[in-house]
Amino acid sequence: MNLFEQQKPLFAISSCLLGNRVRYDGKDQALGDILVSLKAKYRLLPLCPEMAIGLGVPRPPIHLRKSSEGYRAVLIDQPETDYTQALCDYAASVLQQHPELKGIILKQKSPSCGTGKTKLFDEKGTFMSADGWGVFATEIQKLQPSLILIGDDAL
Ligand code: SF4
């Protein structure tokens, strides 16, 4: 990496937004033309919390379901399978490994990465509202409130 590249601020980015096929259904969510200007301004560090905790592609989808401990990231078809703690641990490890991180660009509406528009479900799996934050994004915000978090819909 040349000196110019090194001097750009480091932003992490949901890997699917870079065009990587890491979504549960094997697809991506590539941003398109705006990636050119993002790459010109920032060093981009791709991350996919769900892949990082060992979930493969394709994988059964998860959603956010209310429990006595708040909202949890669980398998839709098998809600006793709970990935909340693993996603929180991954958030902590990202911050620990990349202290120079200035912000994260996150895929909106995801139960892991979402920033305020993720669907929330009650204890029985019935839809409640679409104003939740993903577990990874919530934990990042809790651990390092000063970090800039940008949903892809705000780009
Ligand atoms: S939204 Fe987040 S967890 Fe889902 S595929 Fe994209 S990077 Fe992975």
Structural class: alpha/beta
Radius of gyration: 16 Å
Question: What about the largest sheet?
Answer: 4 strands, parallel
**Fraction of residues in helix:** 25-40%
Give the domain tally.
1
**Low-confidence sequence ranges:** none
Task: Please give a quick description of this structure.
With 155 residues, the protein is of the alpha/beta class. Helix content is 26%, strand content 30%.
Describe the structure.
With 155 residues, the chain is an alpha/beta fold. The chain has one domain (3-154). 26% of the residues lie in helices and 30% in strands. The strands form two sheets. A four-stranded parallel beta sheet has the order 2-1-5-8. Strands 4-3-6-7 form a four-stranded mixed beta sheet. The model has no long low-confidence stretch (mean pLDDT 97). Iron/sulfur cluster binds at residues 14-16, 22-23, 48-50, 107, 110, 112-113.
Helices and strands in order, then pairings?
Blueprint: H1 3-7, E1 10-14, H2 34-41, E2 43-47, H3 49-52, E3 62-67, E4 70-75, H4 84-97, E5 101-106, E6 115-121, E7 127-133, H5 135-143, E8 148-151
Parallel strand pairs: 1-2, 1-5, 3-6, 5-8
Antiparallel strand pairs: 3-4, 6-7
Helix pairs in contact: 4-5
This protein binds iron/sulfur cluster.
